[in-house]
Amino acid sequence: MSWLVTGGAGYIGSHVVRCLDEAGLAPVIVDSMSSGIRSFAPAHVPFYEASVLDREELVRIMDAHSITGVIHLAGYKYAGESVKFPLLTFEQNVTGTARLLEAMQQAGVNNMVFSSSAAVYGTPSVALVTEQTATEPESPYGQSKLIGEWLIRDQGIAAGLKHTSLRYFNVVGSGSEELYDASPHNLFPLVFAALNSGATPKIFGTDYDTTDGTCVRDYVHVADLALAHVEAAKKLEAGQELEPVYNLGSGDGVSVREIMDAVARVTGNQFQPLLEPRRPGDPARIVADGQLAARDLGWAMRHSLGQMVDSAYRASQALTPAKEA
């Protein structure tokens, strides 16, 4: 029995692959390498450079490895950039998911864990987001993830697909020092890049209705996230019913100021962040309730903020000019 991981050479996908491998679920990687990093893929794990848009290639891979389920992480994941490139976003995230579902049906693969996003909620009006909170995405990225959920649910009705979608928020940290977040848009790599170049990280907005006036976000460790994916895969393969969606959140957010203080403490760089005006559209607080996932998927916050920052910082040291060349 094997599980196909789309986007398995990415930051989150590579952690999921390693957890699957440790659990004995025999991962197989498909990655287009548009943002994946080949060295993230373990040498002994079957690897295919292919797009989820290539239905026939997906069918061939599934048949060759007797795939029993798919963890679908591949996609265009930049919410801000999706506003500039909506057609690319929908092609990769909506058409790509549809092609993958077609391939799964053709190959007789009946289990799916989908990587969704907190972006489906937009700017929630509640302090703590639950799975029942209204979905009002504000970017093509968030819209594409919600449509992906709809496609998967409809395929469940039409073809009996067993599935669940995991909505997660700000994923940080590293479960292994050689696996780092290389995104040019995420907070942690941006802060580390600024410090490494001699620049000063910035805080946008200090007058929000929060404890210290800065935005509060929900940060979760990537290794904890990977474990939840694997637990969902195991439950589906065992024939257990899961909820259609789960939030993977902390239930208690962390402010941007607290992040900066933790980075200064962990790195030993006692910087004072530059204070800038608010950016349009930044909500004061987005935090999710993860109780449902804790009940069904063993979801837990196993890492402190300090551990999240420390592991991310250690992994970021791999981002040297030699590595990027």
Automatic annotation (TrEMBL):
Its keywords, alphabetically, are: Carbohydrate metabolism, Isomerase, NAD
Which cofactor names does the annotation list?
NAD(+)
Under catalytic activity, the entry for this protein gives: UDP-alpha-D-glucose = UDP-alpha-D-galactose
Question: What Enzyme Commission number does this protein have?
Answer: 5.1.3.2
Domain of life of the source: Bacteria
| Pathway membership, UniProt | Carbohydrate metabolism; galactose metabolism
What the entry lists under InterPro entries is as follows: Epimerase_deHydtase, NAD(P)-bd_dom_sf, UDP_G4E
> NAD-dependent epimerase/dehydratase domain: from which residue to which, for each copy?
3-249
Broad enzyme group: isomerase
Q: Report the family membership.
A: Belongs to the NAD(P)-dependent epimerase/dehydratase family.
Q: What is this protein called?
A: UDP-glucose 4-epimerase
Organism this protein belongs to: Glutamicibacter ardleyensis
Lineage at the top is: Bacteria, Bacillati, Actinomycetota, Actinomycetes, Micrococcales
